[in-house]
C-alpha cells in the first residue's frame, strides 16, 4: 500500500455535535492510518456511546473506504458520511456519527442531509491540514555565493533547517517532493554547476487549510 505524498486530513481528533429536530448527532473524527486503527476507533467510540440509537460510520484509509448505516435506513447514514469525506478530499480519517433519536422522524432526505452535514461541519470545526512530504537536501556553497543562495531560498519560501560555517557554507533545506527537481536545477544554474546535492531523511509537514474550497488542494 503506497502512502500518498501530499494529502488533506483533519488537524487532530475531535468531536462536534448538531441538534436536528431534537435528535443529537455527535460526530467523532479520528486520524487513522490503517484499517486496524479505523476498526479500533469505531469500536471504542461505539462502546463510549453504547446507549445511543445508532453509531454509524465511514472511513477513508489510503485507497480503502467503508461505510455502515448501523440500523438506519440503507444508504441514509454511512454513505452520505463517506461522500462528505470524499467531497472534502480527506484521507486517513474515520468518522463515527452517533445519533440519539429525539422523537421526530427526519425521512430519507432529512437523514442523508443530517449525516452528511454532521461530518462536514465537524471537519470544518476541527480544522483541515495539508500533509506534504518533504526531502532534506544538503549542499555546500562558497561564502561569496551564500547571500545570493539565501536570497533565492527565501524568495522561494524554502525552509532552511540548518547552516554550518566551515571551509564553505553547508546548508540543509527541506523541499516539497514535487518541486525538488526544479529547485535543484535552479540552484545548479545559479551556481554555474558548482554544487552537489546529498539527500537526507524525509518528513511530513502540515499546513492549515483556511479556505473551504478543498477541491483545489
Automatic annotation (TrEMBL):
<dbReference type="Pfam" id="PF09186">
    <property type="entry name" value="DUF1949"/>
</dbReference>
<dbReference type="Pfam" id="PF01205">
    <property type="entry name" value="Impact_N"/>
</dbReference>
<dbReference type="GO" id="GO:0006446">
    <property type="term" value="P:regulation of translational initiation"/>
</dbReference>
<dbReference type="InterPro" id="IPR036956">
    <property type="entry name" value="Impact_N_sf"/>
</dbReference>
<dbReference type="InterPro" id="IPR020568">
    <property type="entry name" value="Ribosomal_Su5_D2-typ_SF"/>
</dbReference>
<feature type="domain" description="Impact N-terminal">
    <location>
        <begin position="21"/>
        <end position="122"/>
    </location>
</feature>
<dbReference type="InterPro" id="IPR015269">
    <property type="entry name" value="UPF0029_Impact_C"/>
</dbReference>
<comment type="similarity">
    <text>Belongs to the IMPACT family.</text>
</comment>
<dbReference type="InterPro" id="IPR015796">
    <property type="entry name" value="Impact_YigZ-like"/>
</dbReference>
<feature type="domain" description="UPF0029">
    <location>
        <begin position="140"/>
        <end position="194"/>
    </location>
</feature>
<dbReference type="InterPro" id="IPR001498">
    <property type="entry name" value="Impact_N"/>
</dbReference>
<dbReference type="GO" id="GO:0005737">
    <property type="term" value="C:cytoplasm"/>
</dbReference>
<protein>
    <submittedName>
        <fullName>Uncharacterized protein, YigZ family</fullName>
    </submittedName>
</protein>
<dbReference type="InterPro" id="IPR023582">
    <property type="entry name" value="Impact"/>
</dbReference>
<dbReference type="InterPro" id="IPR035647">
    <property type="entry name" value="EFG_III/V"/>
</dbReference>
Amino acid at each position: 500500500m503506497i502512502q500518498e505524498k501530499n494529502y488533506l486530513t483533519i488537524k487532530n481528533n475531535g468531536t462536534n455535535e448538531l441538534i436536528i429536530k431534537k435528535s443529537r448527532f455527535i460526530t467523532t473524527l479520528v486520524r487513522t492510518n490503517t484499517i486496524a486503527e479505523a476498526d479500533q476507533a469505531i469500536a471504542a467510540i461505539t462502546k463510549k456511546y453504547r446507549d445511543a440509537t445508532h453509531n454509524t460510520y465511514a472511513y477513508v484509509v489510503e485507497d480503502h473506504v467503508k461505510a455502515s448505516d448501523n440500523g438506519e435506513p440503507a444508504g441514509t447514514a454511512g454513505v452520505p458520511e463517506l461522500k462528505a469525506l470524499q467531497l472534502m478530499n480527506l484521507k486517513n480519517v474515520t468518522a463515527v456519527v452517533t445519533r440519539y433519536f429525539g422523537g421526530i422522524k427526519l425521512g430519507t432526505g432529512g437523514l442523508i442531509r443530517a449525516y452528511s452535514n454532521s461530518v462536514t461541519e465537524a471537519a470544518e470545526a476541527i480544522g483541515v491540514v495539508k500533509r506534504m512530504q518533504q526531502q532534506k537536501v544538503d549542499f555546500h556553497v562558497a561564502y561569496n555565493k551564500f547571500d545570493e543562495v539565501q536570497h533565492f531560498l527565501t524568495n522561494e519560501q524554502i525552509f532552511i533547517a540548518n547552516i554550518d560555517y566551515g571551509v564553505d557554507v553547508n546548508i540543509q533545506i527541506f523541499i516539497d517532493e514535487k518541486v525538488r527537481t526544479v529547485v535543484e536545477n535552479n540552484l545548479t544554474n545559479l551556481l554555474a554547476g558548482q554544487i552537489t546535492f546529498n539527500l537526507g531523511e524525509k518528513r511530513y509537514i502540515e499546513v492549515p487549510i483556511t479556505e473551504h474550497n478543498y477541491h483545489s488542494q
